[in-house]
Write a structure and sequence with these properties.
The protein has 2 domains: 167 residues, Rossmann fold (3-Layer(aba) Sandwich), CATH 3.40.50.1400; 147 residues, 3-Layer(aba) Sandwich (Rossmann fold), CATH 3.40.50.1400. It is of the alpha/beta class. A 4-stranded parallel beta sheet has the order 2-1-3-4, sandwiched between helices. The protein has a 4-stranded parallel beta sheet with strand order 6-5-7-8, sandwiched between helices. It starts with 5 loop residues before the first strand and ends with a helix.
């Protein structure tokens, strides 16, 4: 086998891999201007005020999950599976809240003299808060390190046929475990409403929902949950941004309203990230499950879409578009 010419750089935000990384991770998050649209001097000042408390809260979350580095492990596992599937393609992982390691990865890519690098985020919908900062940072670091080859980036792939088919297949598999009449909640990472209003994130989520609903023949609501009108499926958001108004409805609000309506079972379907994370393993599997249990609602969740082989086919087809030249 000759020299490998192509590589994929999987991009995300990352998560703490141990207790010592919690505080630095929180500082990176609180200083993220793409999520908190305020002057940098103000973010720096406020982050120092809130970081300690938020770090304590985050540490308790990972203690409940009993696992650190979820996103890192998931991304590296995905990278290994992609390398096995694609011929002569090296796959790297980079997390933008870990700038030193991010830069080391860029140096490694330059050192190995790849001719083409494909930047691919773990977020299928384009967003100025999730996708764009990852790609911009990778492009900058590669340029700073003197990369001479071609750089391609995929800013969205939510509408790829195999991506939608993978999610729908996982929904059908999960439905087979359901003992009651179930409804669907398609979940996405929350953002401050004022941030989401400036890009296509919400639009892409709604398009994702429509594609899934059309494929499985279930109407999925884009409105607030209702106890007065039947809703078989709905888009809802996971996570909060402290004092900032977040996208709605929240998953908690859906559980509450549907519980009043006599809902027996809910299947939760993550659609805004392709790997497992704190949002799936804690916000959904622990927090939402506890709330659903208290209302005697059966809780089921679809695994992250990267777990399905159809998603690998999606990545294979995306790679072929840029590498098969």
């Amino acid at each position: 086998m000759g020299k490998i010419k192509n590589c994929i750089w999987l991009l995300g935000e990352g998560d703490p891999r141990n207790e010592s990384e919690v505080y630095p991770f929180v500082l990176e998050f609180l200083n993220d201007n793409s999520k908190f649209p305020y002057p940098k001097w103000l973010l720096k000042k406020t982050s120092s005020l809130f970081a300690k408390k938020k770090s304590e809260n985050l540490s308790s979350v990972y203690s409940a999950i009993q696992k650190y580095g979820i996103v890192w492990d998931e991304a590296r596992n995905l990278a290994g599976r992609i390398e096995k599937l694609l011929d002569e393609v090296k796959v790297f992982v980079g997390m933008r809240y870990f700038p030193q390691e991010f830069q080391e990865t860029a140096k490694n890519i330059v050192k190995q003299e790849f001719e083409r690098v494909l930047l691919l985020t773990l977020f299928p919908q384009e967003s100025d808060a999730f996708t764009s900062p990852c790609i911009s940072k990778a492009e900058k670091y590669l340029s700073d390190e003197g990369f001479k080859g071609e750089i391609f980036s995929v800013r969205k792939y939510f509408n790829h046929k195999k991506f939608i088919e993978a999610i729908c297949a996982l929904i059908e598999q999960t439905k087979m475990r359901c003992k009651k009449n179930s409804r669907l909640v398609l979940t996405a990472g929350a953002l401050p409403a004022k941030v989401a209003a400036k890009d296509d994130y919400l639009l892409h989520l709604k398009e994702t929902v429509k594609l899934i609903g059309d494929k499985i023949h279930i109407p999925i609501s884009l409105e607030m949950p209702s106890k007065d009108a039947w809703q078989e499926g709905i888009l809802a958001f996971v996570g909060k941004y402290s004092f900032l108004k977040s996208l709605e409805p929240s998953v908690e609000n859906v559980i509450k309203e549907w519980g009043i309506d006599g809902c027996e079972s809910i299947i939760f379907v993550p659609i805004s990230s392709v790997v497992e994370s704190k949002e799936t393993l804690y916000d959904l599997d622990i927090s939402c499950k506890t709330f659903a249990d208290s209302l005697q609602i059966e809780y089921l969740r679809v695994p992250a879409v990267s777990s399905h082989n159809l998603f690998l086919e999606c990545i294979k087809e995306i790679g072929a578009k840029y590498f098969d030249k």
